[in-house]
Amino acid sequence: MPIHIVCDLIHVLEYLWRGARCLHAADDPAAEQRVAGWALGLLASRIDEVIADLKAHATCLPTDRRDGLKAAVRYLTSHRAFLRYDQALEQGWPIATGVVEGTARYLVGDRLEIAEARWGLAGAEAILKLRGVIATAISIGTGLSMSTARTSALAAAVTRTDTPSRPDLTSHCGRAAPIHHRRPL
Fold first, then answer.
1. Quick check: 144 and 138 in contact, CB under 8 A?
2. Cα 121 to the chain's mean position, in Å?
3. Helix (H) or strand (E) holding 22
4. Are the C-beta atoms of 96 and 13 separated by less than 8 Å?
5. Which segments of 2-156 are extended strands (E)?
6. Cβ atoms < 10 Å from Cβ of 143
7. 125 and 155 in one domain?
8. Which of 91, 109, 136 is the C-terminal boundary of a domain?
9. In contact, 19 and 30? CB cutoff 8 Å
10. Is 110 part of any domain?
11. Residues 87 and 116 in one domain
12. pTM value?
């Protein structure tokens, strides 16, 4: 079974933006147009043309302003085989996972990576489900406020019949909230 690797377009765009910042001021709309042009070139698999354009712009700049363009050229050149977006799109493959990663970071990282918190599997799963329900309700425009969504999701989670009615107080594994340990003074 062949394995096809495609670089995440969002990651590639970061390099293109670094290059554009060498050519344009931060608030210049021409920077966005330039990045869009390069991105469309990559999506059409005109990789060599995009690299040539980046190189041409780099040669016109003083050496102290070329770093972003040179980094973009290095990245595109070394990852050329993984930039076949035309083939990926033709096959229906995803070309950008940044949204998925951001969602995972939002749902998981913000809650489960609290300093000094310890989570059991059941508690972590309950929190993730709750945050998922809240985020979904808000994103689809249900009209629920954050507090209403939390209350509704919590009520649904509490009334589930496959969970114990009371948490096991002998272990932190059955709790849905982190246990914070006090440090000695």
1. yes
2. 24
3. helix 9-23
4. no
5. none
6. 9
7. yes
8. 91
9. no
10. yes
11. no
12. 0.56
The CA dihedral of 97, 98, 100, 103, to the nearest 10 degrees, is 180
Flag whether 102 is in a domain.
yes
Last residue of a domain, one of 75, 91, 107: 91
Identify which of 109, 128, 135 has the alpha carbon closest to the alpha carbon of residue 176.
Answer: 128
Nearest-angstrom CA–CA distance, 6 and 12: 11
- Only one residue has tokens 């016109």, namely 60
Owning domain of residue 154: 98-174
Q: Is residue 184 part of a domain?
A: no
- Block means of pLDDT (10 residues each) for the chain, 185 residues, are 86 95 92 95 96 96 95 97 93 79 68 67 76 69 52 48 40 39 44
126 vs 98: CA distance, rounded Å: 25
Spatial separation of the C-alpha atoms in residues 150 and 133, rounded to whole Å: 8
Angstrom distance (rounded) from CA 138 to CA 103: 14
Q: For residue 163, what are the contacts with CB-CB under 8 A and spacing of at least 6?
A: 157
Chain CA centroid to CA 183, Å: 35
Q: How many CB atoms lie within 10 A of CB 9?
A: 20
